[in-house]
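Ligand: calcium ion. Inputs:
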Amino acid sequence: AKAAGGNRFERADPEADARAITRHGLTTALPAALDRGEFFIEYQPLVHLGDGSVHGAEALVRWCHPQHGVLGPDRFIPLAEHTGLIVPLGRWVLQEAVRQARFWNRSHADGGPLRINVNLSPTQLHHPNLVADTVDVLERSGLDPGALCLEVTESALIGADEDLLKPLRQLAEMGVDIALDDFGTGYSNLANLRRLPVSVLKLDRSFTQSMQRHPIDPVDLKIVEGIVSLAHSLELAVTVEGVETGAQAEQLRELGCDTAQGWYYARPGAPDRIHSLVLADAV
Ligand code: C2E
Ligand code: CA
Ligand code: CA
Ligand code: CA
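Predicted complex:
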């Protein structure tokens, strides 16, 4: 530790240094990782709260790093976002997830198509080729656009002007669902929802967590009740994420939420798990 004047000390922080080195190493390794096929996707089912049947799945990307093992998206998505690699990486995720959904839907067409949810980062949202790339991926796979849901975080759309909304509007007109992810964390103006081309609200995990406390905070209950009734009056579906217990699922079902996702149903996993869940449903 070296003196920084007076009685203040600037301490060396070896952990922070190590983190910075790893961050730098991961950032420079990203492009080659994409070429080498080190990314893979896990799928987490989305379930109807009413009858427990499978509604679809969310695609969640992971990086199988040759030295560090499997890394979650929180470790590398911000880096990819920063360097712009998120554009080709995001395109790969979309293509792969849509191909997978097409495969699921080929093998069981009845009961309505299984939905596939794909996350879009702010940089992808701003990219001029978003609509063309998405149309291209859908056409080449043959997946019905109505089976695709793109998830955009609430914060990415705060203060969004028409230029930013236009591509989302075009996709929505083709039948693609747009979901507002992490809803309730971004202080967005609820009245603004009417302006956005979204058809699904994904209620942030923090709300689900508050449904776990005993007794449940009556204010939290009122807030969720309010969001659900507003969403339904705007003809938006409500998905809840982070459901870890049956009690939470029951509470959220009673509050009128439509679909749910969380460890209570299944952790993110390999694509054939979704396949077998749906087949099990069908019998
Ligand atoms: P998200 O979109 O909010 O995804 C939900 C996260 O919650 C996932 O974390 C999921 O594994 C986790 N989760 C699901 N159920 C439960 C539960 O019951 N309890 C708890 N505690 N957690 C649960 P994951 O996979 O680590 O992803 C983190 C974030 O990374 C995602 O948050 C999303 O914002 C981003 N992400 C993932 N894949 C992609 C991608 O392909 N593109 C982009 N742009 N972002 C992605
Ligand atoms: Ca998401
Ligand atoms: Ca979310
Ligand atoms: Ca989140």
